[in-house]
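Quick one, T. Sequence first:
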Amino acid sequence: MRSTRALIYRDNLRHNLGVIRSFIKRPQTKLCIAVKADGYGCGAVFTARTALECGASYLAVATVDEGIELRENGITCPVLMLSLCTKDEMEAVIKYNITPFVFDREYIGAFDKAAGRFGGAAAFPVHLAVDTGMGRIGCLPEEAAETALLVTRSEHLSLGGVCTHCSSADGTTDADRAYTKMQFDAFVSAVDAIKAAGIEPGICHCAASAALLDHPEMQLDMVRSGIITYGYYAGQIDREYFAAKGTPCELEPVMALESEVVAIRPFKAGKCVSYGRTWTAERDTDIAVLPIGYADGLLRRFSPGLTVAISGKSYPVVGRICMDQCMVDIGKNNSCVHRWDKAVFFGPANSGALQDAEDIAKRTGTISYEIMTGITKRVPRVIV
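Structure tokens:
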């Protein structure tokens, strides 16, 4: 197996699922686990099976192909599709029993026709998305009842649920919290209007990772766990925040990214490394070469600033990261680093890592989500 690989820690995933369930206040509230983007890089099918073993009732994907992958691997539970599909994909949505989000007349009509052509005798369930302030997909709250009627009056669809998504629930400022409350209030009003129209709304859900942990009043019939499943916090709702609140929330990273030292080369002071000669040795040193690069998800812009752990010590990646390789300054005659030693970029403490994906994200101006989902398919995943 290739030495550059992503280790996926099964016990850490189970631990996180247990933490998440401990934050759910009502036993009747269902748990939906987002396994989109290949389970945030950790493997969609593996994550799905583990989540279902640990009490999840629903799964969520972003694309039709992601839903099909689950079905073709024997997963039969309800699967929500969080993003929109094309008209040509609707047949597969129906045939593979993937639950779409709908929100306007044209899209509802197209799905009604698809369900009539490709569905069974029973009405095909859809969830109505309400845009309470995310500005992405959904009908406006004041249009919710009218739009729900379009679903219930269609020939081949049924209303299985109503949902929204909060844009700022991961923030702790007064403005963020006020905006989240506004969104929740708008959603509740939309659901009430649907009920007042004589329509059963089905499963009502609006709490993703941050709201699930920090706004228990928003848990409703179901919660949708995303990044916290994989061991990282949402925005400012982090470990320190919960410790200060007196409600500890200890998540464990599920993925570790590692490679191996395949060469150690002596460098004289004044010698340059990699494309563009962006780094020049200021002293005599040794450079370790690792077979991992931006085609693996170790992005070019991560250097300078990226470090890697080798034999329990942190060393800087120097020069531009290449497509398939990167170089590390290990100092002159370093007796702690040898050819074939493991090099760990991020992961849980027991992986040998000295940082996690959030640490890299903070130094490179992004979020942990992007670091994990950016690890490409050519990096083997190994369940440990």
